Backbone:
């Protein structure tokens, strides 16, 4: 997917988070949004996902066939993962993935049992998510994003709550399953974006 922004800006009341951001994200590229806390990384990522509107400027999304996409249809093309995402904790991991993949297809060669196996959480697959640790929940969030067959993958601080083994697992997944997709990572942790070929620095407005 190709994403283009022109003079994009976001304001909360009288406070501008960022302004005048004209960016290009090419199909199959990998980019990191970098900057101090409050510089607008997460806000920009949500705007790129069509989850939040900009205060000024424009943004367009173009698919592989050269067709412009409307924001209300973006969910079909996007996988998104962020620390603030809530999981329906009354469900088990198996139930959640069954529900999720009613709306999106898994990557070729994967199904729900193989996705659960990739997470290493087989023994907990039928336990309610409320009983999962924060690190286990993060693996589930990453799994439903990374293993969905979408051309655009947006990740906000993807290694939040992960231990060293979880970080290595994430890095292995990105090496194996991000090829050919447009990937954008909002982060201040080099371990999360080491594979990205483009860096976009966000500076807070003063």
Residues:
């Amino acid at each position: 997917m190709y994403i283009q922004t022109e003079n994009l800006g976001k304001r909360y009341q009288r406070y501008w988070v960022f302004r005048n951001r004209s960016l290009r994200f090419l199909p199959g590229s990998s980019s990191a949004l970098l900057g101090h806390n409050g510089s607008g990384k997460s806000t920009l990522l949500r705007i790129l996902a069509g989850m939040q509107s900009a205060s000024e400027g424009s943004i367009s999304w173009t698919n592989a066939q050269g067709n412009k996409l409307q924001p209300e249809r973006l969910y079909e093309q996007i996988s998104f993962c962020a620390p603030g995402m809530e999981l329906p904790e009354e469900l088990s991991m198996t139930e959640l993935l069954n529900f999720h993949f009613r709306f999106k297809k898994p990557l070729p060669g994967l199904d729900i049992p193989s996705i659960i196996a990739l997470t290493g959480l087989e023994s907990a697959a039928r336990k309610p998510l409320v009983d999962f640790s924060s690190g286990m929940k993060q693996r589930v969030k990453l799994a439903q994003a990374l293993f969905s067959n979408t051309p655009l993958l947006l990740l906000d601080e993807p290694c939040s709550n992960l231990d060293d083994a979880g970080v290595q697992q994430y890095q292995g997944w990105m090496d194996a399953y991000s090829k050919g997709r447009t990937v954008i990572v909002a982060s201040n942790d080099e371990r999360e974006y080491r594979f990205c070929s483009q860096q976009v620095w966000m500076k807070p407005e003063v």
